[in-house]
Predict the 3D structure of the following.
Amino acid sequence: MELLGVRLVGLNATTAHKVLLTIGLLVVLWLVRSAATAILGKVDASGDRASRVAFWTRQGVSLIVAACAVIGFVSIWFDNPAHLTTAVGLVSAGLAFALQKVVTSLAGYFVILRGSTFTVGDRITMGGVRGDVVALGFFQTTIMEMGEPPPVQDAEPAVWVHSRQFTGRIVTVTNSKIFDEPVYNYTRAFPFIWEEMHLPVAYRDDRRKAEQILLEAANKHAVDYDKLDPKMVARLEKDYRVRREDFTPRAYWRLTDNWLDVTVRFITHDHGTRGLKDAMSREVLAQLEENGIGIASSTFEITGLPEVKAKLSS
């Protein structure tokens, strides 16, 4: 084939025809995907369940478009089975060497879907990043990062929010991480987490009253077992061996050299823990002050100094 009197090597009428067909195929698929996205965008996705349905519908559209693109590309360029076999061999060898991470990330995407590892809206820890999943792509997972509670503040990467609330950073993590590191899911199938509140009480104070104050605050704000859906409770007991006692707030004592460490353990929903513990802390502090119970500390207070006299010699 010639262009302006110059013969183009490797380009003939057949090749040009295939190029045009490929461009046409890509344009058609792009139009179909855009139309499907526009239709989904008009559907009311308010609510957790609706947003998940919309997300998985978009994922299905993307997979169908990608499959059609691959089938169309192969049909256009490799109509000869012998050529197809050679091309597949060459492509496989190239992928195995140059695109290991890409292939692994794509495989991780299908493992995530098939294994129900997590979905959009789940709160997870993946690749050292804590937060809520806002998007799941073929190669990367997008996470809205959240802070870390004080016991894990030294973990990498450093964050400045001292609780499980959003930092405002959007983090992308390759899907290949699921093969190298564990994925912690706060919300999948079991929508609760156990929390604890510690209170150091001096041995001279009324420790039983301190325990009562902690338990009353936990019973008021924690998940109420009696208000849970009986079907969900039955499923949790069957699948996760969760007993009724595990839902009920319970206090534990631990002896130390300086004070009695009273810990109340309770169960909360996967979101809103900081607000719940804030409300509990305010009530506990007010009750402690009302009952004359102090919070033990390792600090020292100097209440007086011996009299010092100085004499000047002449």
